[in-house]
Amino acid sequence: MGTLYLVRHGQASFGADDYDQLSPRGHEQAVRLGAYWRERGLQFDAVLCGTLRRHAQTLQGIQQGLEGTPEPLLMPGLNEYDSHALIHCVHPMPLPRPDTPELYKQHFRLLCDAMAQWMAGTISPAGMPCWDDFSGGVRAALDHVRRQHTGHNVLLVSSGGPIAAAVGEVLCTPPEVTIALNMRIRNSAVTEFSISPKRLMLQTFNTLPHLDTPEHRGWATHA
């Protein structure tokens, strides 16, 4: 039986004009994760990765710390939803930059509300697939792993939304639980599934073992 390691990208550029770019801390998180695995002798037989810039940069950091991985299979179905398009559906007026705790909370309250409506099919954010198609892309990645990589260690680099959808698929969670899981996934966090030909099973969720030292505990971030 193999293990699928799902990794959320490192800290990106929340609040900036271009979110899809790792911050210096995000790059450090990714390199540290790869080094942590190298120190423990973990090697991967296959790699799956979304096609967003922050996914590629996170994988590059992991590869740097791990000192190599197989060439990734790029899967657009592992890309994140468009949070701005979602929020615009429930709050059409422009929001101020979320640079205070109150504005940060407002941003994520609106996002959770929009996600619930998107999953229920009551809104259709511009430029985005419906929820069934979004979750279907995640399901296709999981099916590929289950069919092709039983007995292997597989790395999957993506975002909080697809990883929460993957956990929801495996555990059959209702939408409100999937949304809650999404909001809790930390940057560079690791979620593990055991792989068998018939099913995937959750082993761990949202862990940061690579940051569990006095030197690195201050590196944990959420956005």
From TrEMBL:
Gene3D superfamilies: Phosphoglycerate mutase-like (3.40.50.1240). The keyword Hydrolase applies. Keywords: Hydrolase. The keyword Hydrolase applies. It comes from the Bacteria. GO terms for molecular function: hydrolase activity. This is Broad specificity phosphatase PhoE. The lineage of its organism: Bacteria, Pseudomonadati, Pseudomonadota, Betaproteobacteria, Burkholderiales. SMART domains: PGAM.
